[in-house]
Amino acid sequence: MNDANLDATDRAAEVLREHRESIDRLDAILVYTLAERFKHTQAVGRLKAAHTLPPSDPAREAQQIARLERLAEEADLDPAFAKKFLNFVISEVIRHHEQFLEGDA
């Protein structure tokens, strides 16, 4: 392998390393952001349980999904993926709210 190929390979390895470091940082941000989000949704769940409100709010959920789809489009992210992701998060939130309502949490 000549020096030009080695230099190109070294540069590619460095760029790959930088991308991976960015991915690792972003994964940490996602995890901590989700944890913070769930702290708030759990507080909502406790409040709903205390006032015997239903664990699910379909109108709010539809509004949030539409909002996230718009944000995804603005961010150049597949809105269908964003919708699947939020639906997954919402289902977990509702599960927590149901547990609060049942007194399990």
Write the layout of secondary structure elements.
Layout: H1 3-50, H2 58-74, H3 79-102
Helix pairs in contact: 1-3, 2-3
What does this structure look like?
With 105 residues, this protein is mainly alpha-helical. The protein has one domain (3-102): Chorismate mutase (Chorismate Mutase Domain, subunit A), CATH 1.20.59.10. The protein is 85% helix and 0% strand. The protein contains 3 helices and no strands. The protein has helices at 3-50, 58-74, 79-102. Helix 2 (58-74) runs antiparallel to helix 3. The mean pLDDT is 91.
Short description, anyone?
Residues 10-101 form the Chorismate mutase domain. This protein has helices spanning 3-50, 58-74, 79-102.
- Describe the global form: elongated
Kindly report how far apart the N and C termini lie.
Answer: 62 Å
Mean pLDDT: 91
Counting DSSP E segments of at least 2 residues, the number of strands comes to 0
Query: What is the correct CATH architecture?
Result: Up-down Bundle
Main beta-sheet strand count, sense and barrel state: none
Indicate the CATH topology.
Chorismate Mutase Domain, subunit A
Radius of gyration: 21 Å
Unreliable segments (pLDDT under 50, ≥5 consecutive)?
A: none
The number of helical runs is 3
**Overall number of structural domains:** 1
Series of secondary-structure elements, N-terminal to C-terminal: HHH
CATH homology superfamily = Chorismate mutase
**Overall CATH class:** Mainly Alpha
Structure classification? mainly alpha
Report the sheet-strand fraction: under 5%
Q: Helix coverage percent of residues?
A: over 70%
Protein name: chorismate mutase
InterPro entries: Chorismate_II_sf, Chorismate_mutase-related, CM_bact, CM_dom_sf, CM_II_prokaryot
GO molecular function: chorismate mutase activity
Domain Chorismate mutase: 10-101
